[in-house]
Amino acid sequence: MYTTPYCGYCVAARRLVTRRGYPHEEIDVSEDYALRQQISRRAGGYRMVPMIFIDDVFIGGFDELSAMERAGKLAARFGGAQASR
Questions:
Q1: Cα–Cα distance between 62 and 81 in angstroms, integer?
Q2: Would you say 8 and 61 are in contact if contact means Cβ atoms under 8 Å apart?
């Protein structure tokens, strides 16, 4: 998950995956413009943060992450196993 520290959607995404116990790595792109551009290209031109990838597949930002969770599809993306809350 590529984030910036001052992004409310980044905070919300972090809280969701942490609350659910999903393993994740957060990479701050706030001061690395080149990395942010590189990740944006990997994400098909998506420029907002968070930029969320699961198993190297871009899923979108917080809205998409939240929608997957509400639809019951997020656990399957993490191998079907959910850590204890």
A1: 21
A2: no
Whole-model pTM above 0.85?
Answer: yes
- Domain annotation covers residue 83: no
Q: Are 46 and 61 in contact (CB under 8 A)?
A: yes
- What is the torsional sign of CA 75, 78, 80, 84? negative
Amino acid letter at 29?
V
Domain holding 69, by residue range, is 2-77
48 assigned to some structural domain: yes
pLDDT band at 83 (very low <50, low <70, confident <90, very high): very low
Residue 10 tokens read as 């980044």
Number of domains in the chain: 1
Q: Which amino acid is at 33?
A: Y
